[in-house]
Design brief:
By secondary structure, the protein is an alpha/beta fold. It is built from ten helices and twelve strands. Bound molecules: glutamic acid.
Amino acid sequence: MPAPYRGRFAPTPSGLLHFGSLVAALGSYLDARAHDGAWLLRIEDVDPPRVVAGASDAILRGLDAFGFEWDGPVESQSGRGAAYQAALDRLDVLGLVYGCHCSRKEIAEVARRGVDGPVYPGTCRELGWRGDPRREPAWRLRVPETRVDFRDRLLGRVACDIARECGDFVLKRADGVFTYQLAVVVDDAEQGITHVVRGADLLASTPRQIVLQRALGYPTPVYLHLPVVLDAAGDKLSKQTLAAPLEDNDPLPALLAAARFLGQAPAPDIGSPAEFWDWAKRNWRPEWLPMLRAKKLAG
Ligand code: GLU
């Protein structure tokens, strides 16, 4: 019997579905279906300021119009604060978190730049700070000094010295918002996700997520980081770079383009979305993914 496979697509509802998100959705979907696996959908709306009203419904409508079929109910991160707080409390009991009152400006003045912004210099780490009743702190993970090593199915061995490259990262911000890193780890574990297939723009986050999984006693999923669609200036397509929304009423050209972008070779006689899906689910070849493009953005 093959090992169970539970994959997921986890868009942030900060804009409409565009070609870049279609590529990530398609890669994770085809990989799940090729393994006879489940494919779950999760709306990552943990960070209220990033959420655009109506975007979540529009994304679901778009995926449906393109012919994606997800398993089970769609999960959302909003309203899951109790689960994230419980994880934070467990880390606290283990002595792995501490409160931090440093402002962005104070950090920027002294921090080195790491893989994903300034590396927190650890100012509050040893202060034994246990709470200022007048002011909420940010809660940071005390990251271990060891290197994190994992195997990406496309990129091979990826290693990261988190203490050097990220420093103690934030799990809950001073405004009470849980961060993506904590929420995604708790959700992947609670949804029993075994395989994560997502854009290589998230590669720098994976070692931090693995450290959190280890601290919380969760299993680490198998990772595959896909090539990311860049615009002419070399930036990831996003609402900010004005990626054109997809045409819901004519999915075939975008589906074919997304499959080609992922290194697949759609049969020339595919004439409808139904024919596309029939072909695509039977012919997914992750070994054809263009590796150089995935590496470029990952650094
Ligand atoms: N919500 C993230 C994004 O849209 C994806 C998170 C993930 O796949 O882990 O970039």
